[in-house]
Amino acid sequence: MRRPRLPIVAAVALAPLVFSSTSLAQSSDWQVGAVLDAGHTTKNLELGARDKGLELGHSDLLIRGPLGKHFSAEASLAVHTADGRLEHHTESLWVQTRTLPAGLQARAGRFSSQIGYLNEQHPHADDFTERPLLYRGLLGGHWFDDGLRLNWTAPTPIFLRVGVEAFSGKQLVKEAQRQQSPGARTVSIKTGADLNERHSWQAGLSYLNNRREAPVPEHEEAEGEHDHAHGAAFTGKHLRMADLVYKWAPDGNMKNQQVRLIWEHARFSGIHPEAGSRRHQGSALSAIWRFHPAWEIGARTDRLSVNRPELHDEGAGPELEFAAAKLREHALMLAYKPNHMQTWRVQLSRQKAFGDAATEVFPQPAHTSLQFQLVIGFGAHGAHSF
Amino acid sequence: MRIASKVFQATLAVCLTTSAHAFSVFACEPEWAALTKALFPEAEVVSATTAQQDPHHIEARPSLIAQLRRADLAVCTGASLEAGWLPMLQARAGNAKVQNDQPGMFYAAEFVTLIDPHRGAITPFSGDVHPEGNPHMHADPRRVLQVARALADRLMQLNPKAAPTIAARHAEFHASFSQKIAQWERTALPLKGRAVVTQHASLGYLWQWLQLKPVADLEPKPGMPPTPGHLERLRTQLNQSPASAIIIAQHHDKRAAQWLAQQDIGKTLPLIILPATVTEISPEALAAWFDSIITTLTTQIK
After folding, report:
1. Which of A41, A77, B93, B174 could cross-link B68 (Cys pair, CB 3.0–4.6 Å)?
2. Is pLDDT above 60 for B239?
3. Selected residues 110-139 of chain B with any CB under 8 Å from a CB in chain A
4. In chain A, what residues touch B61 (CB-CB under 8 Å)?
């Protein structure tokens, strides 16, 4: 947790002026832009990143463009409020090849891992005010880290991408009690196509090998612990994820009307050497309907079940126990998007906790939380993925 | 042994035919796919979008990444028209040929002068404005001729062996299209000076070329869908100074235009819905599209 720093605040405040007054971004392929995400929440969500009251969501300042003929680069700085303070971090700082042969691409630096569906997408483009529980519980909201990536896109009529990544893993498990280098490795495969003009789909499978073992907390410290978007709350050795996306638009003209269905599942196993078959797992299913060029409505159902290892000391030496709990969350949202630079969203979320250790692991599920969110883009902001 | 050698020969034949594949062109919009077909019919051409789709709002779908991955040349409009999706396709396709500043990446906007560049500040409330100017330049056939010349040069550069035939086809296209332009201009003479209500600048070049007068836009700001308040203002405006027609593109949401057309504004306004670009990909598609829109406009605007 850091104190607000003047330069960052100044940069965020000044960015819109700088980018709106010049057409710097258009003078070359370099793009400069900023996104402001401001919101108001009536009640904190368990594992949520938004504070009660007025808050700054995931806002960023981004610069992206080509580095000569063979490379492209990106840097971004993200800020948000957490527990009433302004936090900031470098979210991306990478160089990627553009001209490797045979469909190969390599990237080095800090960037979001391409596991799962949502992880590599910018949070400000999300359909809901918070990421699904599986991201908030198992990946610290969205997982970016320092590392390397190698991707291969196949020359096939059906899209096929295979990729491997190696990361330090420090953004996933902040402090490890045991670790190997590299701290995290991933392999993922993505495929997708159009069924016809109106229907498109994409499917992905990914695997993360986390080699940084998180320390097991004492029962007392575990209780009421809140990890705000940095580092994952629940980890393990092997994370397996599957995702499926289906989109429909009449005549393929998504500007006027579109339906998007997104399903994701994640399972962390090897959560502790003595955990046996206990694991953490979560899944989310969302449906969004754009029923008018400027309006969208969406619903999401979301669940997470965890087995948190804890050390209990009843006087006879520390003893390992697993606190089993489940969290369920439902969300309904309505969004107004008058153009691509603005999103006004209102969302209703409802949480419920279950299980033997529900009151310890998820002590304050929000029975009802109403959230208002405004996302405004300034300057150029790059293209988004499917 | 003989079977094995036959299988080997067959496999080899398949491999050779696949490796000697046709020149593959990825067009961002169907007008450029049609133009490519007119200049180089031997090319294998796909279009990322159709006349039913708003080219500003396309997703970087997996199918498009796969198509760009295999392209030898990408032919796009540029001027930020595809800013929301093409850069993502280029970043994901892993195809060195179609990166910016490579000969395999052709932007039509680099070869023509654009109308209405946006001057001044761009804020999140300006709408989807283009500082470079209106990118929908394919609706001016004279500019299509300029693009055709540049595209023919690029196709010849990338296909030196086919250069003489491409040059010949270009000469043929230029001659017949120029002749047609003169014809269209004659047919459209009665349209000159007529006031029309439009939506977005999708056909801005057409109005300029045929000297129609766009007096109102259904969109309150570029790219912003019509709002009730704005439509009400348009109704008042049209009551005072009537227009000859409401003209929108096929890919626009029709509800706002239909509402306005049903209002009693002096006389009933005809609602004309035009395809904003060619509806098929063939060497003749561009000429057929201009033929059809000019026929529609001249018969419906009385």
Report:
1. B93
2. yes
3. 121-125, 127-128, 131-132
4. 192, 194, 200, 386
Strands ordered across the beta sheet of B73-76: B44-47, B24-27, B73-76, B105-107
B15 touches A: beta carbon within 8 Å: no
Cβ pair A45, A347 in contact under 8 A: no
CB A282 within 8 A of CB A305: yes
Chain A interface, best mutation among B24, B47, B59, B253, by max A CB count within 10 A: B59
Distance from CA of A270 to the nearest CA of B (A): 33
Give the integer Cα–Cα distance in Å for A57 and A39.
7
Q: Is B91 on the interface with A (CB under 8 A)?
A: yes
Q: How much is the pLDDT for A222?
A: 56
Mean of per-residue pLDDT scores for chain A: 88
**Cβ-Cβ contacts under 8 Å for A70 (sequence gap 6 or more):** A97, A98, A99
Q: Which residue has the tokens 């626009």?
A: B252
ipTM of the complex: 0.88
Whether the CB of A291 is below 8 Å from some CB of chain B: the reply is no
In chain A, residues with a C-beta closer than 8 Å to the C-beta of B93 are 103, 153
Token match 């994820």: residue? A241
Tens-digit pLDDT profile for residues A235-294: 999 999 999 999 999 999 998 899 999 999 999 999 998 889 999 999 999 999 999 999
The pTM for the full model equals: 0.89
What three-state secondary structure class fits B118?
Answer: coil
pLDDT tens digits along B263-283: 876 667 889 999 999 999 999
Q: Among residues A275, A177, A253, which one has the least CA distance to residue B49?
A: A253
